[in-house]
Design goal:
It contains nine helices and ten strands. The protein is α+β, with helices and mostly antiparallel strands and 251 residues long.
Length: 251
């Protein structure tokens, strides 16, 4: 499977999930509100963009009442919840490429903040198109393997309509085309998999092997700082860092 293991990101962030739950829910709410306002209203059956945002929120275990409030906010009159989608491209240490997706109500503030974070952590903010060609938009669904081996998971992938699956320890990651997200997720839910994450994501076509621990530290710190920013929705990268380094540096 081309691209770095998504399970690496999951391992890196596992310990911090609980402490960042409020921020994660806030970002999910912002995404739902924007989808309801700009994607065609508050009915997820008639608004695929909203349906995807709700699925992501559910994957983060966001409470139902918070999801409903975010939908109502986006469905209301006036400018509240009128966010703009932005994507920034850049490089971290060791030439690792980053795609940073944002939702913001102030383009100038977000651009300045993202540039500052790149500069502070030894990265470089690039121009549009400088990195995007190295990534593909994919449906990416990470679940607990539940003791299944690669053969069993491959069969599950074929039945679900996914075109690839990656097993890393106890984490299985299913990949599919960007339009296949909902049917694949529903099929995996029917098989009673426990979800760790589910999203439309930029998946790297190739990876960069990071061989210096100091570079690895800079990369992970840059990603952490970006993800901690309120306007940043997701950060995607093409690094390949040893698991033991991720666990050590992420602790």
């Amino acid at each position: 499977m081309a691209g770095h293991s998504h399970s690496a990101n999951i391992k890196h962030r596992k310990a911090a999930v609980d402490s960042k739950k409020a921020k994660i829910f806030s970002k999910c709410a912002r995404l739902i509100t924007s989808a309801a306002r700009h994607g065609g209203g508050g009915d997820p059956d008639a608004n695929p963009r909203l349906r995807l945002a709700i699925e992501k929120a559910r994957g983060a275990n966001m409470p139902k009442d918070k999801i409903e409030r975010a939908i109502l906010k986006g469905s209301g009159e006036g400018g509240e919840g009128d966010y703009e989608e932005l994507t920034y491209e850049g490089y971290a240490a060791a030439g690792v490429a980053l795609m940073v997706t944002c939702l913001t109500d102030n383009r100038n503030r977000t651009a300045s903040d993202v540039k500052h974070i790149f500069d502070k952590r030894g990265g470089n903010l690039g121009s549009p198109g400088s990195v995007a060609f190295s990534f593909d938009m994919r449906s990416v669904l990470a679940v607990k393997a539940g003791g299944k081996d690669e053969d069993a998971l491959t069969e599950d992938a074929l039945e679900a309509g996914a075109d690839d699956v990656e097993l890393d320890g106890e984490i299985a990651t299913f990949y599919a085309g960007p339009t296949e997200f909902v049917p694949v997720k529903e099929s995996l839910e029917a098989k009673e998999f426990e979800f760790l994450s589910a999203e439309l994501a930029y998946v790297p076509q190739n990876t960069i092997q990071v061989e210096d621990k100091e570079d690895a530290k800079k990369i992970l710190r840059l990603i952490d700082d970006l993800e901690d920013h309120d306007d940043v929705q997701n950060v995607y990268a093409n690094f390949d860092i040893p698991d033991e380094w991720i666990e050590e540096l992420g602790s």
